[in-house]
TrEMBL record:
GO molecular function: 5-formyltetrahydrofolate cyclo-ligase activity; ATP binding; metal ion binding
Residues engaged in binding substrate: 64
GO biological process, one term: folic acid-containing compound biosynthetic process
Keyword Protein biosynthesis belongs to the record: no
NCBIfam families, per database record: MTHFS_bact
Domain of life: Bacteria
Pfam families membership: 5-FTHF_cyc-lig
Name this polypeptide is given: 5-formyltetrahydrofolate cyclo-ligase
Family recorded in the similarity comment: Belongs to the 5-formyltetrahydrofolate cyclo-ligase family.
Keywords, ordered alphabetically: ATP-binding, Ligase, Magnesium, Metal-binding, Nucleotide-binding
Amino acid sequence: MRCVADEILAEQKSILRREMLARRRVFSAEERKEASRSICARVAQLSVLKAAQTIMLYASMAEEIDLVPFMEKLLADGRRIVLPEITGRGTMEARELPSMDALTDGVFGIATPDPTRGSIVPPEEIDVIIVPGAAFSSDGGRLGLGGGYYDRFLPRAGNAVRVVLAFDFQIVPAVPMGVQDARVDVILTERRMISCNGYYLEEEV
Ligand SMILES: Nc1nc2c(c(=O)[nH]1)N(C=O)[C@@H](CNc1ccc(C(=O)N[C@@H](CCC(=O)O)C(=O)O)cc1)CN2
Ligand SMILES: Nc1ncnc2c1ncn2[C@@H]1O[C@H](COP(=O)(O)OP(=O)(O)OP(=O)(O)O)[C@@H](O)[C@H]1O
């Protein structure tokens, strides 16, 4: 049952989400491309990423960090990639993407791997998850798009390091968090690398 505290939390999230998505919209395509390039170059160097067998990414929507060149590079290097497949209200699974031409239209217009070309991968096989979202805080707080998809999925992926790639303006002092909200471990922007809640990173932060 939803109590008053939940209602207040949902309202606080909704206000911050609206503000953050508006900030993302004013970023020009050129700025986005440039920032995406530098953020992806940095994540490729992370030792947790280099060591990962199975990496979960997402097929970017128009205003998100462009992960396509990074995804192409990982596939060219023979790495195992999985992407979200929405399976119901607030639920998703990870499906293997064997190559870029196996992307098809999915729910909400987000590209997803063709089910005839890649299988569902158990969440516990995933080593690194690149987590999308609207706003993040340095203590690992995350505000998503409001579907609760990652809040439900991340706890099932018990072996995965949760890595956020974000534009620097998406880092805010605090994100309203409830008990069900999943936190992240590492945040990388074009300007900063943040290790959250004492998560140990081999690299200098
Ligand atoms: N690229 C990418 N893929 C992702 C996410 C993401 O943030 N980015 N997700 C991160 O969770 C999940 C999808 N989450 C979503 C949450 C809300 C809406 C959305 O447009 N909601 C509409 C209402 C739609 C409806 O209910 O009919 C809205 O809010 O207006 C879309 C995707 C899984 N895949
Ligand atoms: N583990 C969970 N089990 C059940 N309901 C959940 C869970 N996590 C979140 N929810 C519910 O899902 C709804 C959306 O949650 P929230 O606003 O935190 O999503 P979000 O993290 O922004 O979304 P996303 O992960 O899709 O980007 C809320 O009503 C929340 O109570």
